[in-house]
């Protein structure tokens, strides 16, 4: 089954969030920018070489070239476009993989994408096991399945598997076992005599 309307909206929302985060990189792509890097203090209480103490934090300014920001920008753009594409096609596996890739590749900013990927995964699991991706529907189906198992156990009948076949071997309704074929002279090797 493809994505339902709610999942599709969340998919497009994730693609928009990736586009917004990509926009934050655009100023860094146009010219050299300065970023402030922090470091922990040394055991002596002084800052490492090249760092200065600013508000009790060791900080130094680094000038970055636009090429420093291109990989992160491209990750947000390419994977965000993939999320939008899979949302349009209603493909759940593609969206799950794209969300997890984007979440793992982008560090702290990727926590929201990891959460969305986990949410899609849970819904896919419920849909596969119970036939309903919603929390309420899957709980009702799980209760029905548990009640059916209890009723089968109390009646002394073996529980049915999800495909409807009996699980025990001694059931009277199961088809009789086939007789084993006789040994063929052509294909069966001769038995060696025991001494």
Question: What's this model, at a glance?
Answer:
The protein has about 200 residues and is mainly alpha-helical.
Average pLDDT value?
81
Please list the strands of the largest sheet in the order they lie side by side.
1-3-2
Strand content: 5-15%
Structural class: mainly alpha
Biggest sheet: strands, sense, closure?
Answer: 3 strands, antiparallel
Topology pattern, helix = H, strand = E: HHEEEHHHH
Helix content: 40-55%
Low-confidence stretches: none
Any idea what the shape is?
elongated
Counting H and I runs of at least 4 residues, what is the number of helices? 6
Structure description:
With 195 residues, the chain is mainly alpha-helical. The protein is built from six helices and three strands, in the order H-H-E-E-E-H-H-H-H. The protein has a three-stranded antiparallel β-sheet, with no helix packed on it. The longest helix is centred in the middle third of the chain and has 20 residues, at 70-89. The radius of gyration is 31 Å and the shape is elongated. The termini are far apart.
Descriptors:
elongated, 195 residues, 9% strand, 50% helix, three-stranded antiparallel sheet, 6 helices
SSE arrangement:
Elements: H1 5-23, H2 26-30, E1 33-39, E2 52-54, E3 57-64, H3 70-89, H4 92-105, H5 111-130, H6 135-154
Antiparallel strand pairs: 1-3, 2-3
